[in-house]
């Protein structure tokens, strides 16, 4: 039976078990939207394409399923760019479908024409411009396959309007063969043995776990390995939910704003097992001095990550889950008691701390700790980018996989709120919190309308210090306190704003009101925004100065 | 129809990306592309072979000119010009048929540049027809590999593209 | 004198007479500010890069000066893509400074190790990567030169970290010679004479004027030419405000939602002068049926536009203003009276109209007409993209040069409101209106914070039909009213939202409230948002459906 290109897309989405897509209609996707009308696929209409992209990203992070976005040509497509880049930097499986002007008009600067495949070349795993409707089924199949296998990432499919309208036979391929794409899943057994030997000989081992643990579904294996061998685990920002934050072997986050003891442990370790992590400079600081005493075992599915930033002694290319399973067969329990004691000492030396005067202004860390306590660490958390993001990493103890969505690689301000909507849509029975800064929340606050329209009961906690706190902090430290373009003043009134959208708006100015407000928001059945007016000049500590060595941290204000 | 363009460009990083991006974006078809330095410092010359009709060709030339790093575009198709392409062909060959191949090679004024036990490498320079012809003839033996440089072209006579 | 790269940037901005910089949070280096504070240059911070870029674009369109944007090279650029592409599609002069480590948050940008600057390649006039301080002053000069000359457009300057922090001798080149860039200003005399000859014999001549009229400052010459030879003028969307709408020779806009008589005139004309226009598909409809009876003279500064979309008979590459001046010296058509009467007959047979029931719901067209009445046509207007944009083109009379700012080529929803903030910065003494739809206003609504922070007294008229109206109209007309994802069920209460930002919020729900509310907004000293609750299912008519000819124009939808 012959069907139209637009119909093929919908059939393919059904066959890929897509139940929800995020998008915004426009001239060149009208045929797709018309076919969508006849399907059971749920469409979430955002208020800006960037919101749709981040929401689908949050959906993907929370569920492990690919996020699917539909947008029109021209501005619709360009509005996705930040969302695509954010997903690309954090290896999130996503499929973006964009409309394009009809093929005869391509290259003529037609209305709402942009070269979106050219634009997204550096920020997609792959992209396609569909020139023939007969290729469409194969291309969609390949798009989903590429997005969700190997190192995951965003894939974009650009479909001209006349291709959407053209008809052809529809055969959805069952298998995919892409000659230039063959990810390695099984680790090389010789390398795995070497890795196991290194772990067995270690006196001071540390596991450094990244987002790859989560995307390969290896959290259970990681926990087993850590417990079996008594190895402490430090995670990256992306890896936070990969290992329970309240586990005795957890060191919390390492790197620029990591814990002192995690950084000391890494700096003094003799073996580092890097699992699904990429030695980002936010983690390593000065790369040459990073873990200088350690033999580095690096497990990653992407061979290009091995040796990219830091030389690995024992590289193992493969799926983290499979490699950890093999390692578990080969390693034996070790005695790391002395090493753990040493780490405990570092922890005592410089614990994470802040002060909260109960009659004074609210400390931002206090808010986050209370969210953790009230939700008992069971909430799904999305963050924006900035100080609140680091405090969340420090003070919220993540205990479940896929419970955090945060733009780690790109650091996209405006990511968190729409992402939290996607998380909630993907996991409707969970409690979802978005922890935001006042600057970054404003970046996509228009999606409040989306939250209200679909009654997505996300709770937004705005850590409102009336400035761009992280930028202010950096200016304080590195620009001789010349503050510029950081003062946001009291605009807008977030509680009133929430009400204008039909959401619950709360404002908290006293420490004693923090917990009641959190409870009130949680009891409310719809979306809620809490404006926590916090101390303006709090800094995130500890901190490794940019490009500094991670064992030389600034521990607090006094230094 | 197939056209041959000589494009002088500034030798700056990213120029190739700009030219290739332009062709991709506007849906023009490149048949072959060869790039090399010229005698003038900081200027490179691209020879681009395109498949287009006249109207598209006109657009290609105009759009190329819009790229700030493109200095000059000349259409060599209608002008008296010499065009050449170099091809390396690896043919499976042993004692039994080496002489036959040698004969073909000589007829085409090609060269054998590598001989191994079971294979030889033939280097041949020429225009399109000549290259197609020798490849066709050699394909009666097993061709293991073919590498082509893409066409380059120059005007006849004293007129130069600068 | 030796100075740092950042200092050179500020010095160069002064040399280029830049008075306003548009940036997003963290978009400029901490260092730069102390140098800025010693200059007259003002730094305006927006909530989002997209807002900053559209604002710079609005500033440029309203003042004719290039808009200057600062951002960081990673995340900053990805969020600027829409703004840059919008400017590129409409040939708006803009210079974007982007750089790794550009901001005070530099340490955070450094981690972005992707090749980000190439994402802007397809939608910029040019981009320059500055790797050494030695190249910095010249590169900045080049960027401004490229952005503002020839066919203007956005240029991205990507500054490497050391180009900002190293020090060197500063010498700013006055003149610049870019070998591969030589726009043609003076047109070919033979072509102009040919055009004049054809024009002299014309019985049914027509001028089809585009945005090029505005960019080359040719509005006076256009008016003189039209008046001297009695040639009627139709404009594109971009050409609105290039020729006074209330002029007797004005036919209004042509194309998909153009006037019936303008489209009929194109259809019947024997000579068409296309001046600074590019035969976009929204104008021509089905190309093979466009202006089949006419000899077409095409004047444009960009040779690549000639013959791109449509074959023309007499191409003239050059600056529109110069060419029009030359045509003014030549002879023109002798008598166009019967042609003008014919056009008037078309005009009276199918005038632009709508029906406003005084007791009924507000008609969107009525709001726009009243904005025109209340501002006496002196306001500077920006629009978003959608039905309200087309109604503005149809019902607001643009008599003032550079008074209409709208995303024509890219059709960017979310353009209008931030653009209006840039317009107001560039033209502080003018009344600035943003005419918006409820869908598109929401796209960059966050910039209300910017409006309030800098007290920019822009008036936003939200034509609120609770729908993505234009998409709904297409679904009604071409998809049997199968409405899919066009109902904006939960819009914010725009009045309360304005108040949450500290702006004035007003609402009109009945026709009689429209005028008082507009007057109240006009007398308010700060930013105002007016929520006009209008009829939901009103259509923009007439309409030439996509890829149809003018004879297939739809006048009413039953």
Q: What secondary-structure arrangement, pairings included, does this model have?
A:
The complex is a heterotrimer of chains A (559), B (162) and C (558).
Chain A: E1 2-4, H1 5-15, E2 20-24, H2 30-36, E3 42-45, H3 49-63, E4 67-71, H4 75-78, H5 81-89, E5 94-100, H6 116-119, E6 126-129, H7 136-148, E7 154-160, H8 161-165, E8 167-169, H9 189-201, E9 205-209, H10 211-215, H11 219-229, E10 233-235, E11 250-253, H12 260-268, E12 271-275, H13 281-284, E13 295-300, E14 314-317, H14 320-330, H15 337-349, H16 364-375, E15 380-383, H17 387-395, E16 404-405, H18 416-426, E17 432-437, H19 438-443, H20 448-453, E18 459-464, H21 469-478, H22 494-501, E19 504-508, H23 514-523, E20 528-533
Parallel strand pairs in A: 2-3, 2-4, 4-5, 5-7, 6-7, 9-10, 9-12, 10-11, 12-13, 13-14, 15-16, 15-17, 17-18, 18-20, 19-20
Antiparallel strand pairs in A: 1-8
Helix pairs in contact in A: 1-2, 1-7, 3-5, 3-18, 9-14, 11-14, 12-15, 16-17, 16-23
Chain B: E1 2-10, H1 15-25, E2 29-37, E3 43-51, H2 54-66, E4 70-75, E5 81-92, H3 95-107, E6 111-115, E7 119-126, H4 128-138, E8 143-148, E9 152-155
Antiparallel strand pairs in B: 1-3, 1-4, 2-3, 5-7, 5-8, 5-9, 6-7
Chain C: E1 2-4, H1 5-15, E2 20-23, H2 30-37, E3 42-45, H3 49-63, E4 67-72, H4 75-89, E5 94-99, H5 106-109, E6 126-130, H6 136-148, E7 154-159, H7 161-165, E8 167-169, H8 189-200, E9 205-209, H9 211-215, H10 219-229, E10 233-235, E11 250-253, H11 260-268, E12 271-275, H12 281-284, E13 295-300, E14 314-317, H13 320-329, H14 337-349, H15 364-375, E15 380-383, H16 387-395, E16 404-405, H17 416-426, E17 432-437, H18 438-443, H19 448-453, E18 459-464, H20 469-478, H21 494-501, E19 504-508, H22 511-523, E20 528-533
Parallel strand pairs in C: 2-3, 2-4, 4-5, 5-7, 6-7, 9-10, 9-12, 10-11, 12-13, 13-14, 15-16, 15-17, 17-18, 18-20, 19-20
Antiparallel strand pairs in C: 1-8
């Amino acid at each position: 039976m012959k069907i139209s290109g637009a119909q093929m897309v919908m059939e393919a989405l059904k066959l890929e078990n897509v139940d929800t897509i995020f998008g915004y209609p426009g001239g060149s996707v009208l045929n797709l939207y018309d076919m969508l009308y006849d399907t059971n696929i749920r469409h979430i209409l955002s208020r800006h394409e960037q919101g749709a992209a981040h929401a689908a990203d949050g959906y993907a992070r929370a569920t492990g399923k690919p996020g699917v976005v539909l947008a029109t040509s021209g501005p619709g497509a360009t509005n996705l760019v930040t969302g695509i880049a954010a997903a690309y930097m954090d290896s999130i499986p996503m499929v973006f479908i964009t409309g394009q002007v009809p093929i005869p008009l391509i290259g003529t600067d037609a209305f709402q024409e942009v070269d979106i495949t050219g634009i997204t070349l550096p920020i997609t795993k792959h992209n396609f411009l569909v020139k023939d409707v007969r290729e469409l089924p194969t291309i969609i199949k390949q798009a989903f396959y590429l997005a969700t296998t190997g190192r995951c990432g965003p894939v974009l499919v650009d479909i001209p309007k006349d291709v959407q309208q053209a008809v052809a036979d529809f055969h959805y391929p069952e298998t995919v063969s892409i000659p230039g794409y063959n990810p390695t899943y099984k680790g090389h057994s010789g390398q795995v043995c070497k890795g196991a030997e290194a772990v067995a000989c270690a006196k001071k081992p540390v596991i450094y776990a990244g987002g790859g643990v989560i995307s390969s579904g290896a959290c259970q294996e990681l926990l087993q390995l850590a417990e079996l061998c008594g190895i402490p685990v430090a995670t990256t920002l992306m890896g936070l939910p990969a290992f329970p934050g309240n586990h005795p072997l957890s060191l919390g986050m390492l790197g620029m704003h990591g814990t002192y003891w995690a950084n000391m442990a890494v700096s003094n370790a003799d073996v580092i097992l890097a699992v699904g992590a990429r030695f980002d400079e936010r983690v390593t600081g000065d790369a040459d001095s990073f873990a200088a005493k350690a033999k580095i075992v690096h497990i990653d599915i992407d061979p290009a990550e091995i040796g990219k930033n830091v030389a690995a002694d024992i590289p193992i290319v493969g799926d983290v889950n499979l490699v950890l399973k093999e390692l578990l067969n080969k390693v034996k329990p070790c005695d790391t008691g002395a090493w753990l004691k040493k780490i405990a000492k570092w922890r005592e030396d410089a614990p994470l701390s802040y002060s909260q005067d109960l009659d004074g202004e609210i400390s931002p860390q206090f808010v986050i700790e209370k969210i953790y306590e009230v939700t008992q660490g069971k909430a799904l958390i999305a963050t924006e980018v900035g100080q609140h993001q680091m405090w969340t990493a420090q003070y919220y103890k993540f205990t479940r996989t896929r419970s955090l969505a945060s733009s780690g690689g790109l650091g996209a301000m405006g990511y968190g709120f729409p992402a939290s909507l996607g998380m909630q849509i993907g996991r409707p029975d969970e409690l979802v919190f978005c922890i935001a800064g006042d600057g970054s929340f404003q970046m996509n606050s228009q999606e409040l309308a989306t939250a209200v329209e679909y009654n997505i009961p996300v709770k937004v906690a705005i850590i409102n210090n009336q400035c761009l706190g992280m930028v202010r902090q950096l200016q304080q430290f590195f620009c001789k306190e010349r503050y510029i373009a950081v003062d946001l003043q009291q605009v807008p009134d977030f509680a009133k704003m929430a009400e204008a959208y039909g959401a619950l708006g709360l404002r908290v100015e006293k420490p004693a009101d923090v917990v009641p407000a959190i409870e009130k928001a949680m009891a409310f059945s719809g979306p809620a925004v809490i404006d926590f007016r916090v101390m303006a000049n709090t800094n995130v500590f500890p901190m490794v100065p940019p490009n500094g060595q991670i064992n030389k941290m600034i521990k607090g204000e006094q230094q | 129809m197939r056209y041959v363009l000589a494009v002088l460009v500034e030798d700056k990083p990213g120029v190739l990306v700009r030219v290739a991006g332009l062709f991709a974006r506007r849906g023009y078809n490149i048949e072959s592309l060869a790039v090399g330095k010229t005698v003038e410092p900081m200027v490179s010359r691209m020879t681009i072979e395109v498949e287009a009709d006249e109207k598209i060709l006109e657009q290609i030339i105009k759009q190329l000119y819009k790229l700030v790093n493109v200095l000059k575009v000349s259409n060599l198709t209608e002008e008296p010009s010499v065009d050449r392409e170099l091809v390396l062909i690896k043919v499976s060959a042993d004692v039994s048929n080496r002489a036959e191949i040698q004969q073909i090679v000589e007829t085409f004024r090609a060269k054998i540049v590598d001989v191994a036990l079971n294979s030889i490498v033939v280097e041949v320079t020429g225009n399109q027809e000549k290259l197609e012809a020798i490849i066709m003839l050699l394909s009666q033996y097993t061709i293991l590999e073919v590498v082509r440089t893409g066409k380059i072209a120059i005007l006849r006579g004293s007129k130069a593209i600068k | 004198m030796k100075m740092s790269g950042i200092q050179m940037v500020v010095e160069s901005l002064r040399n280029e007479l830049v008075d306003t910089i548009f940036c997003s949070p963290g978009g400029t280096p901490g260092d730069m500010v102390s140098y800025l504070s010693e200059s007259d240059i003002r730094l305006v911070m927006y909530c989002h890069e997209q807002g900053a870029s559209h604002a710079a674009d609005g500033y440029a369109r309203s003042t004719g000066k290039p808009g200057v944007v600062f951002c960081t090279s990673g995340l900053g650029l990805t969020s600027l893509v829409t703004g840059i592409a919008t400017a590129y599609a409409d040939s708006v002069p803009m210079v974007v400074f982007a750089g790794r480590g550009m901001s005070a948050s530099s340490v955070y940008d450094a981690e972005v190790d992707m090749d980000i600057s190439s994402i802007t390649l397809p939608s910029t006039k040019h981009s320059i990567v500055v790797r050494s301080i030695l190249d910095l002053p010249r590169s900045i000069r080049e960027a401004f030169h490229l952005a503002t000359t020839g066919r203007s457009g956005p240029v991205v300057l990507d500054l490497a970290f050391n180009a900002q922090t190293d020090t060197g001798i500063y010498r700013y080149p006055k003149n610049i010679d870019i070998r591969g860039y030589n726009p043609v200003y003076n047109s070919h005399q033979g072509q102009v004479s040919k055009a004049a000859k054809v024009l002299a014999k014309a019985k049914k001549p027509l001028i089809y004027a585009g945005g090029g009229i505005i960019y080359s400052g040719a509005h006076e010459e256009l008016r003189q030419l039209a008046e001297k030879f009695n040639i009627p003028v139709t404009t594109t969307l971009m050409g609105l405000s290039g020729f006074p709408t209330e002029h007797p020779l004005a036919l209004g806009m042509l194309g998909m939602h153009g006037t019936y008589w303008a489209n009929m005139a194109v259809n019947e004309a024997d000579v068409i002068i296309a001046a600074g226009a590019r035969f976009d598909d929204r104008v021509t409809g089905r190309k093979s049926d466009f202006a089949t009876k006419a000899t077409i003279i095409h004047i444009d500064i960009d040779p690549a536009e000639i013959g791109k979309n449509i074959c023309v008979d007499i191409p003239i590459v050059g600056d529109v203003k110069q060419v029009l001046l030359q045509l003014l010296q030549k002879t023109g058509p002798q008598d166009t009276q019967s042609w003008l009467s014919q056009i008037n007959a078309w005009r009276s047979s199918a005038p632009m109209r709508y029906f406003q029931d005084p007791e009924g719901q507000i008609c969107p067209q009525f709001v726009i007409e009243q904005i025109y009445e209340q501002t006496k046509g002196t306001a500077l207007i920006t629009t978003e993209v959608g039905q309200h944009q087309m109604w503005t083109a149809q019902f607001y009379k643009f008599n003032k040069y550079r008074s209409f700012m709208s995303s024509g080529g890219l059709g960017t929803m979310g353009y209008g409101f931030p653009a209006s903030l840039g317009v107001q910065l560039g033209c502080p003494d003018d009344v600035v209106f943003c005419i918006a739809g409820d869908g598109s206003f929401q796209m960059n609504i966050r910039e209300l914070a910017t409006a309030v922070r800098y007290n920019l007294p822009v008036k936003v008229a939200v034509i609120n039909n609770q729908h993505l109206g234009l998409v709904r109209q297409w679904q009604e007309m071409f998809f049997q009213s199968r409405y899919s994802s066009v109902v904006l069920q939960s819009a914010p209460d725009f009045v309360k939202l304005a108040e949450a930002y500290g702006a004035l919020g007003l609402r009109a729900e009945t026709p009689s409230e429209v005028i008082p509310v507009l007057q109240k907004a006009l007398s308010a000293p700060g930013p105002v948002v007016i929520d006009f609750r209008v009829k939901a299912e009103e259509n923009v008519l007439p309409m030439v459906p996509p890829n149809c000819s003018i004879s297939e124009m739809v006048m009413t939808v039953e």
